Amino acid sequence: MKKGRLYNKQEIEIISKSAIGKSIEDIMNEEVVTIDNSGVNKGGLGQLVEQYLFGIQNNSESEPDFMPAGIELKVTPYKRIKGGKLSAKERLVLNIINYMDEWKNDFKDSHFWFKNNTIQLLWYLWEPNKDNKKFKITHEKLLELAKNEDLEQIEEDWNYIIQKIKDGKAHEISEADTMYLGACTKGANASSKREQPFNDILAMQRAFCFKTSYMTQLVRKYIGDYSDVEKVLKGTKDTFNQYVSEVVNKYKGKSQKELMREFNIDSKAKNINSMLISRMFNVQSKLADTEEFQKANIIPKTIRIEENGRIKESISFPAFKYTELINQNWEDSDLREQLETTKYMFFVFKKTKGEYIFKGIKLWNMPETDIETSVMEMWKKTYNAISTGNIVKSITNGIRKTNFPGMSENEVCHVRPHGRNAKDTAPLPVADKLTGATKYTKHCFWINNKYIKDLFIEFN
DNA sequence: GCATGATCATGC
DNA sequence: GCATGATCATGC
Predict the structure, then answer these.
(1) Which residue ranges form the domains of chain A, and what is each CATH number?
(2) A321 touches strand C (CB under 7 A)
């Protein structure tokens, strides 16, 4: 009987299906294939499954796990989030990008394609406070990129990353650059750097990956919770980017009033421009909640530019939970993860002769240097205020001043209230020392209006 | 004029 | 009832 790397497609499928319902521990106990157990504890769960379920030893990484079948095996976690929905727990890390060689290839000749064009996925359900080896494999799926509806976008993403290498900008690559296929950092720390072909500056070592947001959509599609997600691309052969620019060109130059009339919206909501952009895309739900925006982790935001070029308002995030925030480190915080992987699509409304005119869009993600300096300082100060119970600094005429990092002390971001009103509160993990409060007005992180101002110079 | 605290309308 | 995207209001 053949074994290990020599299994063919049908055998891989049979073995994968046989793993469903089993925990890693179960698989290790059954151990049907002959393997060398030495060094078995080095790897993660994926490696254990490779070794015990398929009898594959750690390989050189230059080929797919199964040859000649050309199939790569990936074991990946998903989890249940609040509200019962499912979500990927991590990005799916693929092969390390060889800056010196990969640019010489076309997409279909690339090392990425050779290694990852057919992936046998095994999903296990991750649960908090549970022994790793007790996680159960619940679903499997053979992902064949050549037949995948997202292939065109994945190729576009690959080309974008390669173009940055060709432009001598490998050191400026960010995971937020692309939609589904990303380039995530890979290595022990920020000093894991590699040479690049067209620039002397060393670049962070990165690997191709399917972004967490993309993996979440796969989880919802193949495991559950998929039905209620609205698509942006309905009955069009356009790629996402093509469709976006069509929509933008169609409405560019129209005023807020004209758009309200065109879409039959009469509203005084503060997020009226946000409602308008959903309608531009013919989306019933929120644009941010559609499949394509979710998969690519793109967050649409509306921006108003005043006649003098100033942007009055900062950009809000969803309110954070005090109790959750203090259970995180900066390194694994929601905020850091979000900023590193999110791309913002700003819809610009510029005030002209008293009216806000839609001028177009601007794509942006926060540079890593800002995340690791200013944002980190702000996050840590927020953490300290909450964890030590030092939130309220003073009260005058019923108005409370806080110790949260303000706009004047951080050039990138700050913390401010975000709720229905001051009575809209969330529980505190530590009672506030000055007031004794055990709950406090909901707050969130904000990106400073001054900080983003320069992004929109082209619209002035 | 700006920084900060407070609040609004909507949709599910 | 609540989260969200966003703007308002006020004192220094």
Answers:
(1) 4-222 (3.40.600.10), 240-365 (3.40.600.10), 369-447 (no CATH)
(2) no
Instruction: Kindly report which amino acid residue has its CA closest to the C1' atom of nucleotide B7.
Output: A421
Q: What torsion do the CA atoms of A133, A135, A137, A142 make, to the nearest 10 degrees?
A: -90
DSSP letter assigned to residue A404: S
Strand C nucleotides, any atom under 7 Å from protein beta carbons: they are 2-8, 11-12
Q: Straight-line distance from CA A444 to C1' C3, in Å?
A: 12
Which nucleotide lies nearest residue A286, CA to C1'? B11
Question: Tokens for A344?
Answer: 């913002």
What's the Å distance between residue A245 CA and nucleotide C7 C1'?
Answer: 28
> Residue A370's CB: how many other CB atoms inside 10 A?
16
Does this model's pTM top 0.70? Answer: yes
**With contact defined as beta carbons under 8 Å apart, do A65 and A72 qualify?**
yes
pLDDT score, position A192: 79
Span A374-395, pLDDT tens digits: 999 999 999 999 999 999 999 8
At A45 the pLDDT is 83
Q: Which range, A162-166, A181-185, A214-218, has the best average confidence (pLDDT)? A: A162-166
Per-residue pLDDT tens digits for A380-437: 999 999 999 999 999 887 788 999 999 999 999 999 999 999 999 999 999 999 999 9
- Strand B bases near protein CB (under 7 Å) are 2-12
* DSSP E strand stretches across A115-167: 118-125, 136-144
pLDDT band at A58 (very low <50, low <70, confident <90, very high): low
Cβ neighbour number for residue A312 with a 10 Å cutoff? 10
**What is the percentage of chain A residues whose pLDDT exceeds 90?**
63
- Distance measured from the CA of protein residue A319 to the C1' of nucleotide B3, in angstroms: 20
> Which residues, listed in sequence order, are joined to residue A80 by a DSSP beta bridge?
A86
Q: If you average pLDDT over every residue of chain A, what do you get?
A: 89
3-state class of A166 per DSSP? helix
Asked if strand C contacts A314 at the CB level, meaning under 7 A, the answer is: yes
Q: How many CB atoms within 10 Å of residue A328?
A: 16
User: In angstroms, how far is C4 C1' from A275 CA?
Assistant: 12
**A310 touches A265 (CB < 8 A):** no
Distance of C1' in C1 from CA in A320, Å:
18
Residue showing tokens 């971001």:
A413
Residue A250's pLDDT is 95
